[in-house]
Write a structure and sequence with these properties.
Length: 562
Amino acid sequence: MTLAAQIEQIITDVDDQFADVTEQLSLGPVVYLYDGNQRLQHVVFDPIEATAEDVENAAGAVTVTIPASHPAAEWLMDEAGRRRRGEGVNVHLEYRVGGTRVSGRVSPELGITAERLDTGEDVVRAAAVGEYKNLEMVRVWSNPWLPAIFQFPRIFLLAGPAIWVLKVSLFVNLLRLFGSLWQLPDDPMNPMSWLSGLDMSTWDIVIKPTTLLTDMAAGTVWAVAASRFRSWAEMAAPILDDAELTVTTGRWRAGDPEPWPGAVVKDGALIVDIVDHSRHREGAVRGGTIFDGMTRTIRESVGDLIEDVETAFAGAPSSDVADAWRSVMTTAPGWPTVHIAADEDSRPTVVRRPPGAVHLTMGGQSAPGVNEGISATVQSVGDLVTSNINVSGYGIGPQGGAIDTLLKPLYTDTVAAWLSAKLIARRNQVGSSHFLEDFISLPGKCYTISTLMALRAGERATRGDEAVTAQFPTDSPWILGQPGHGHAWTGSPVSFEVPGSLSRDIHVERIKKTAAVFTENAADDGLFRAAEIGRKDPTDPFETVLSRIKGLADIATDAGVW
């Protein structure tokens, strides 16, 4: 095939893809209603209002409001009928537009509401929490292979590449729940039900497999998963944040492509995957200028492993980038497809958070064994000395314990109880005039592995970054949608310019949240148009780091370190 013919073929393929997506988007949003067994019951083409949001590594939401006279409204309110027909009490909503799906389950906190609007119209509103809520409701047992009455060892520990570690920790606990290893199955009188839990094709939640060697070859950041009956989402949160990973969840429906080659899952199963959209350890686009183009960097830990620095990288892109871009409706990991110009109608709002202090000091309790060693020394020396003391011919006996009791308030937590780290890379960046020191009260012993983890958490929380809120208007060339149905989605990197900047710098951050709103008056068309880029929320950095450090201290306490 000649070069001209290849170019013509590429143009034809791109036009076909755009035409297909444009046709899907023109149909508008549709809300599907499923019963407690994930069986389709109603399809709502004409809601009064419908919304959907997908949040990175957190539970999103789906809501729908329909007239009370709608058949689906009657079904929603007929809980007794659903129970009688064997449909289950639970209700599931799935918001679909342009091939993109966001689903969730109506939760006890949100529920189904029947009300009368100010206009006098009677409506029924259903509000569902996103599928990530399922992962928040899975507890990681100390030992998922043993019954609750006997849990040894005290804590679940697993080290390895982050994606593999998180998937394995979730899988073994799903096996515990669905496999009925130490509990009666749902139907004890059915002999086959005792073994059905070992067949993943019957599970409601299924994990897309990733092997240890595959994750190691991908260069995923290593992590240690530690839990003593904590929720999987709580345990995974700091790992996902540090490794910049994204958890994806979606229901597989009959007729969909296989979630992975050879997969056998039931209709309506929740497919869970963990993906690396950033590729920050392999060489990813992190910014540039409109004059010089994009630059690639590799993130590396330096010095005492507390700080990370970006190092310029000039190597050739890997082959998977070209493979990912075979479809225009996608964003290759580490290579943003969407660019938001400063003068576009999307008008991004940029908030720049500068770094914090260049010293981090923490502590409060001596390292493991220090207080105990001093106490043993005082008692031993005291016993030796006082054993040879006689008063009026009577020996006073060993008094090391009494002496230790008197001296303990003076030496406890004075040796190896404090740690101060200077962030050299940050010091070289902020200038000579800067905030000097921040103090973090470490709720546990100092100079442990968790102390290093706490320092990294503190450095990351006070590192400073950019947060961008951008709107994707109707005339935008970019489409927000899941892979194959849009240029970018939650977790995808996006490049943008800062409004009013004369340097015309280009910044790259990942999408943290996407949202869609539909109203029957056509003010909102139901397409995914809102995107929050950068940090998910403007929480105080030290609130974040203190919560993480408390979690690390709890882990160490559970493990018996202190």
